[in-house]
Amino acid sequence: MLIITVFLSFAALVSSGHSPHSAYIEELVRNNAFGVRISDNVMEDACLDLADLVRKYNYPFEEHSVTTEDGYILGLHRIPHGRDSHNVTGDKQVVFLMHGLTSSSSDHILMGPGNGLAYILAEEGYDVWLGNARGNYFSRNHRTLNPDDQRSGFWNFSWDEIGNKDLPAMIDYALQHTGKSALHYIGFSQGTTSFFVMASLRPEYNQKIISMHALAPVAYMEHSRNLLFHLLAPYANDLEALARLIGIGEVFARSEIFTVVGKLFCNDEAITQPICSSLIFLIGGWNENQLNATMLPVILGHTPAGAAIRQAAHYGQSITNRDFRRYDHGLLENILEYGSVIPPRYDLSQITAPVFLHYSDGDPLADPTDVDRLYRGLGRPMGKFRVSQATFSHIDFIWGIDAKTLVFDRVIRYMKFMEIMH
């Protein structure tokens, strides 16, 4: 309801509601320039579940289930082959994609064939696996704990557990299912954070990685330029404790409200569409040149997908402490959990998998200074690769109009190079 209130409050201030790219996109569609690269029915795609959305565009889609050592039941998705090229099953290299905070496997699918990274990789001949962190829409399940009971303990996790327990379980499942010994890993935002957690705490998993590509890598956040995060960061522990006290552990759960808002207020004919864009820019950085606002109803039909408050609180601690450490539970619980008053640092030197850092100057969450600090701490960094467009921002790494040419094509080139070297 908060989002609806924001829309109604500011609608009168908006003079023009059309996407800055809508006329251009419509002309391309009329001329069939895309073929089926973009959605042929935005409103339909906003309402379809992810499996039906992928199958609508004639791609195969598999749904798998993985149970972690502490009982979380995770949804693991797969696009085993392409549609137009490499469209048969066979002996393919495996690539594992991991989403960002409050998101899901849909991150790499929503922009459609030709634009979504999952589709692009399938057409390049890869067996594509897409992970879902505990607590999101596809992984909101547990052997004994009830996610609807906010006091059950289900939501007592941060991205520490996602990296330490979820990623190993999903990677092992994908490798066992395909008969492979190693795979490529591509993470976005929190999907990079959780990898750094896994590869430092469980270094045996480094040998299972052919190459790791970090899109908008987030570890250190001392120089984060996101105003909202900086305002909330000093109060992260207090807000998390208060939420737990009143029985709230989940934030931004998947809801039909977001779908309705997207369809009514964020379509190309709505005068409120720029407000939709602004809300996304508030979190992910401002770059109108890369957001195809026509796709906003599809994005809001599948995102956000839910997360634990503690995940955000852990990032708040990283900003405040100017370090990359395990979750700070408080003095007594830290002693019980870690054997020390202060949470230990993640030892990045343990990360011996070949890591490629893809970053941009315009990203407010992964500042180049923090990326450089991360690079210098890694055990086997392969390089830092800056996006050539200065305004390229955080969410542009997955939904940007030019993400394929500016980011994905380079990632795939280095993946193929590493396969030769592996």
From TrEMBL:
Any Gene Ontology biological process: lipid catabolic process
Catalytic residues as annotated in Swiss-Prot or TrEMBL: S189 (nucleophile), D363 (charge relay system), H394 (charge relay system)
Alphabetical list of InterPro entries matching this protein: AB_hydrolase_fold (IPR029058), AB_hydrolase_lipase (IPR006693), Lipase_euk (IPR025483)
GO molecular function: hydrolase activity, acting on ester bonds
SUPFAM superfamilies with a match to the protein in the record: alpha/beta-Hydrolases (SSF53474)
Keywords attached to this entry: Glycoprotein, Hydrolase, Lipid degradation, Lipid metabolism, Signal
Gene3D superfamilies: alpha/beta hydrolase (3.40.50.1820)
Ranges where the Partial AB-hydrolase lipase domain occurs: 51-111
Family as reported in the entry's similarity comment: Belongs to the AB hydrolase superfamily. Lipase family.
Protein name: Lipase
Origin species: Euphydryas editha (Edith's checkerspot)
